[in-house]
Amino acid sequence: MTTDPHLTPADATVAVRSFPRRFRALLARPDDEDRWDPDEIGRRLSADGTSAADHVLAADGVLALLDRALEQGAGHDDVTLHPAFADLAGATWDDQHTPVPALLDQLEATATRCAGRIESVPTDAWADQVGIAGVDAPVGLLTVVRQGVGVVADHLRATQRIITEVR
Questions:
Q1: What Å distances lie between residue 60 and 19, 27, 166, CA to CA?
Q2: Does the N-terminal or the C-terminal CB of the chain have fewer CB atoms within 10 Å?
């Protein structure tokens, strides 16, 4: 997972808002930006057996989990969060049977909600310590945001690699 230790809440908000547009741009056919090829997006060519659509689905799951973690953690002391971002790796697009435009719309809605939640966190809450499952020591909300943004960025890069290989 790529985590930027210098990512600010404002930077995270911009990144989260940009993810849907960036995924759409990667998945769109080069000759028609409003058309997606489900066979191309669902093809499993990567070394780990995931498709580009699987990565979009996982990115949506990470942002939804991040949104819930922020909702639980902002303004509360001693909250235990469970952002098990790695646990989302098992979901596949084949299980969902969601049309590509609906999948991308879902990602857009989740990212918009998550970015709004990041913006709503009071400045003093970023320094508050909260417990996170799987971490030895309590960490702040900003660390959770940095991890979430890093995981989604990794999914974006994986999507790019897969689409490049497929095309």
A1: 10, 15, 22
A2: C
Mean pLDDT in residue range 109-113: 98
The answer to whether 156 and 150 have CB atoms below 8 angstroms apart is no
29-68 pLDDT, tens per residue?
877 766 778 788 888 875 678 899 999 999 999 999 899 8
The CA distance from 160 to 80, in Å, is 34
Q: How many residues does the chain have?
A: 167
Helices (H), the chain: 9-27, 38-42, 52-73, 93-96, 100-120, 141-166
With a cut of 60, say whether residue 134 has pLDDT above it: no
Which residues lie across from 32 on neighbouring strands?
29
147: which DSSP letter? Answer: H
Tokens of 77: 């002391």
Mean pLDDT across 139-161: 89
What is the rounded (10 degree) CA torsion for 60, 63, 67, 69? 120
Sign of CA dihedral 103, 105, 106, 111: positive
| Three-point CA angle 32, 35, 39, nearest 5° | 120
